[in-house]
Amino acid sequence: MKGFLRIRKAPKGLHFSDNNDDKKIDFYLSRLIKLIPSDILALYVFGENVIPEEIMTARVIFAIICLMLVAVSRYQWTKEINSNEPQWPVIVISMISFCIWVYSIGSLFEIAGLQEKWLGSLMIATWVVIVPYIYHGDEIEN
Fold first, then answer.
1. At what angle do helices 117-134 and 88-105 cross, to 10 degrees?
2. Longest alpha-carbon distance in the chain
3. Which domain does 105 fall in, by range?
4. pLDDT, tens digit (0-9, with 9 covering 90-100), for 86-110
5. Is 59 a member of any domain?
């Protein structure tokens, strides 16, 4: 699965090629999908619904475990096939995405009295719009 979530940037200027490089380029929607860790968010939501509300320590530990899973999964899935070099910006941006979603989902912050629902909604709406513009990926080598 190496390189599965690696983001590829479109080359600058005119690009004429017969080898279908366009299939390797990640456009807006593709970058959006790769920069928001929906797999780990699904796990987090499942855990939040299973762990009793009273056991705050377990909820915090589970959130930290999920954040580490975001880092580990993005590290593994963004490695370049030939060099094993991950895309560090994807890892960091995905971790930020996870934290924004955790805040917006509530639970931990709501129980602690630290959540403002309107702020969480604005954060998600803004993040979804801007995150694909933050990082465009690697240049495709010709």
1. 160
2. 60
3. 8-139
4. 999 999 999 999 999 999 988 777 7
5. yes
